[in-house]
Design a protein that fits this description.
heterodimer, A: alpha/beta, Rossmann fold, 7-stranded parallel β-sheet, two-stranded antiparallel ribbon, globular, B: alpha/beta, 9 helices, UDP-N-acetylglucosamine transferase subunit ALG13 (chain B), endoplasmic reticulum (chain B)
């Protein structure tokens, strides 16, 4: 008995540092980014994943995106077509968020400046156009009045759905490129704010990277940008505290909050 | 006489019955009249119908057109525009919000004076912080349930020096730091152009 216990203990002691080392490797924000040749290169189609929550989270996410795509300042204007494929993640039963995402896509995709039109003439051969989007539903991590006891079960269901949706698009690669031009791969970027679904989806992405599933970690996929709610002035939210050392970028929207030296906190101006 | 709207929103997730009651109380309705409001529109939330109905019955007739609805799936944009007014026919009114960031942002973008009344009964009350921070910078009026008439007065002051949102960048040295969402996404994507 004692022998088995010692062996188990030794094994744990030996493998734990290796696992932790692996974790630090994949969780450091300085992990490798893929080299990209142009924003709309057909060989490197980009994939952006956006997580919407209910009520305030959705409102803030869309306010932030709307501000970015309609910005009068060309340096700050987000060109929606730079992201060939967009995946919107919503919680089950949240038809309002789905409606908002659809409205945004219909508004943002046709926005094009003179500069884009000019660029279109020159770079037509390498421009893959506006691409498309999809809205994916995942089960709720926790219903509003659900008892805490069953929360792990529903969270696990949500985690499994998140893993599935992250794996929905993967490609074989050739020299670091998609094997087929225009083929959608893992998300390049995950953009989220604080709903519970976001925490679970980010966890799912970390698990995939931990095991380097289909080379997602080697290829620098699924970089994560977390934007703390604008309503958080003095204290971080629970999701924020959980994710502050896990995401690649952790942005807060009030300068006084950035003074809290937590994880990767940074203040780059108000974003909504 | 031109109409003038007061639009009240209590939010979708946690209905704020006290706010519904407060805006239908006699002192507040009198204050509305004193500031020449003609219409009061209330979004009372999922389970707020009963509270709304009984408060309207108690208020009786008072010279203000009162209307209410549960929730609008199409969003609050329509009501915000109504409160913003259209010049001669409809004067610019006011928005009273439960301090949800969505409605505050909508009102700030449309530059309608807004009174923010946080629900102090909510457990995790970061909305008070938002209301305080925004009131300090004179973007909104921080209202209290007990004295909404005073807040209505303050809103008239706010109307005269309404600030625009998003805040304009001040100074060149700040622009280097403020790259916006696009700058951050570009950094993460590693675009070379």
């Amino acid at each position: 008995m004692a022998f088995i216990l010692t062996t188990l203990l030794l094994l744990t002691l030996l493998t734990l540092p290796a696992l932790l080392y692996r974790l630090t490797l994949i969780l450091t924000p300085s992990r490798n980014k893929p080299l990209r040749h142009g924003r709309r290169n057909p060989n490197e189609p980009t994939h952006l994943l956006i997580i919407l929550g209910s009520g305030g989270h959705t409102a803030e996410m869309l306010a932030m995106l709307t501000r970015a795509v309609t910005s009068p300042d060309p340096a700050q204007k987000l060109n929606w077509k730079d992201y060939h494929h967009r995946t919107w993640v919503i919680s089950e039963g949240d038809s309002i968020s789905a409606e908002r995402a659809k409205e945004f896509e219909e508004m943002a995709t046709p926005l094009s400046t003179q500069e884009d039109l000019m660029a279109g003439k020159v770079k037509r051969a390498t421009d893959i156009g506006p691409g498309g989007y999809e809205i994916v539903t995942v089960p709720r991590a926790r219903e509003i009045h659900q008892p805490l006891l069953t929360a792990p079960v529903s969270s696990f269901k949500c985690l499994r759905a998140c893993r599935e949706l992250l794996m929905k698009h993967t490609t074989d690669t050739r020299d670091g490129h998609a094997a087929m031009a225009g083929e959608v791969d893992f998300p390049d970027l995950i953009l989220c704010n604080g709903p519970a679904t976001a925490t679970i989806l980010v966890l799912a992405s970390v698990l995939l990277r931990f095991f380097d599933v289909r080379g997602c970690s080697t290829r620098g996929k699924m970089r994560t940008v977390y934007v703390e709610s604008w309503a958080r002035v003095k204290r971080l939210s629970l999701s924020g505290r959980l994710l502050s050392r896990v995401v690649d970028r952790f942005l807060v929207q009030w300068p006084q909050l950035a003074k809290e030296a937590v994880g990767r906190i940074e203040y780059r101006g108000v974003l909504v | 006489m031109a109409s003038k709207y007061c639009f009240v929103t209590v939010g979708a997730t946690a209905s704020f019955h006290d706010l519904t009651k407060a805006v239908l109380s006699p002192p507040f309705l009198q204050a509305l009249q004193a500031h020449s409001y003609t219409d009061l529109v209330i979004q009372y939330g999922n389970d707020g119908k009963q509270t709304y109905d009984s408060a309207v019955a108690a208020a009786g007739s008072n010279g203000i057109n009162i209307s209410g609805f549960e929730l609008d799936k199409a969003g609050l944009g329509r009501y915000m525009r109504q409160a913003k007014g259209s010049g001669k026919e409809v004067q610019e009114g006011v928005v009273i919000s439960h301090a949800g960031s969505g409605s505050i942002l909508d009102a700030l973008r449309a530059q309608i004076p807004i009174i923010v009344v946080p629900n102090s009964q909510l457990l995790d009350n970061h909305q008070v912080e938002l209301a305080e921070a925004l009131a300090e910078q004179e973007y909104v009026v921080h209202g209290w349930l007990e004295d909404l008439a005073k807040a209505l007065q303050d809103a008239e002051q706010l109307r005269r020096r309404q600030r625009e949102w998003p805040p304009a960048n001040s100074g060149v040295h700040r622009q280097a730091k403020e790259v916006g969402l696009r700058g951050i996404l570009d950094e993460e994507m590693g675009f070379l152009d």
